[in-house]
Amino acid sequence: xxxxxxxxxxxxxxxxxxxSMQRLHPEKRGKKLVRNFIVVFIFIVAAMFVPWTQNVGANxxxxxxxxxxRPQEVNIMIDGRVAYWGVYEGQVVSAGDTLLVLEEVxxxxxxxxxxxxxxxxxxxxxxxxxxYSDKLSALMRQEAALVATRDNEIEQAKLKxxxxxxxxxxxxxxxxxxxxxxxxxxxRLKRAQELYRDxxxxxxxxxxxxxxxxxxxxxxxxxxxxxxxxLQAYAMSKLEVSRKTAEYADKIAKIESxxxxxxxxxxxxxxxxxxxxxxxSNYTLRETGRVVLAPQDGRVVSIIQSGVGEIVKSGSAVCTxxxxxFSEAVELYVSAMxxxxxxxxxxxxxxxxGWPALVFSGWPSATVGTFGGKVVSVDQVINNKGKYRVIxxxxxxxxxxxxxxxxxxxxFGMILLKDVPLGYELWRQLNGFPPEYYxxxxxxxxxxxxx
Length: 451
Hints:
This protein is an alpha+beta fold. The chain has four domains: about 20-45; about 50-70 and about 325-430, Beta Barrel (Elongation Factor Tu (Ef-tu), domain 3), CATH 2.40.30.170; about 70-105 and about 290-320, CATH 2.40.50.100; about 115-260, Helix Hairpins (Orthogonal Bundle). The protein has five helices and 14 strands. A hairpin with an 8-residue loop joins strand 12 (about 370-380) and strand 13. Helix 3 packs antiparallel against helix 4. The chain is elongated.
């Protein structure tokens, strides 16, 4: 049954081989291998000439292009204790809505009537300033009256000086006249004495001439005395001018000193008034700062200082608000080697987190699920991670980006460069060469001949 025998098999050999042996025939196997190699080689060679779009891939995040539409922290202006929360996380608020209310914690601001009392002090200080101003005006009027009186009296004194001078001049002429009269009478008396000795005139005539001489002498003495008196009066009138000038100068100096003192006191009062008004403004603003309001429409995404009764410092952030509407943009970070390839209006294909996409980096036309964008800004300053930031905005020719996008969500961007053969791209990658630079003819819409 098992045909176990030491004798050779008696089965006849046939001239035909089995199918498995035919497949292993060396001649047919070699031909097929050569044919497959040629096909693969032709395919590889053809693939080397397939167009490949060079690109620079970079990761980034979604941002708002305008700073006033980015998430912002709401900070408080004063130290205080949280008394009331008016919002919760996720709530939509409008500009001016109350976020929280604070209570004062500093002793100098605990008076509930602090603003009212400060206003009263300001009114009192203003009244005092008005009184000082009225006093200063009165002193100025008094000074003006004194100046007018001084001018009148000094003018009168000067007129007296002029009158005294005229009297002195008249008396001097009288003295000279009386002196001449006395000399004439002396000569006449001498001739009368000679005639009287010769008996040519009577005693009566001689006595008459002697009396005339005595009268002339008396008139000279009287005129001399009048001249002396008028000279003294003239000197006194000149002294009176000096005295009145000094007297009124002293009075005016005292008034001017009082004016200066009043002016200084009024300026001090004005400084105190300014300080009080500044304090009132600070108190009013501080009362306003106790109520923290929403700066713009948005959604409360996080509350940093929680609880009631918690003490917060001025400048502390209490919550974060995300604006409801924002201008979409993406910031990508590229290496320093790729920065020279970036320029404004470069085309970018973007893939956003949460949005499915089938990406072929070298064939953007075959890519599905990506969105178009354009470069609007390339930073010229490197960050602390050795990257440069590139700002991307939606390409208006391709429509809007998917909605809704959240600020801070991830994004991957392919900044499209020049179209080159696939073989050249492999050769460039193997040798570590950078991608090709753009030229103006390479940018769509800027072909040769376009202006």
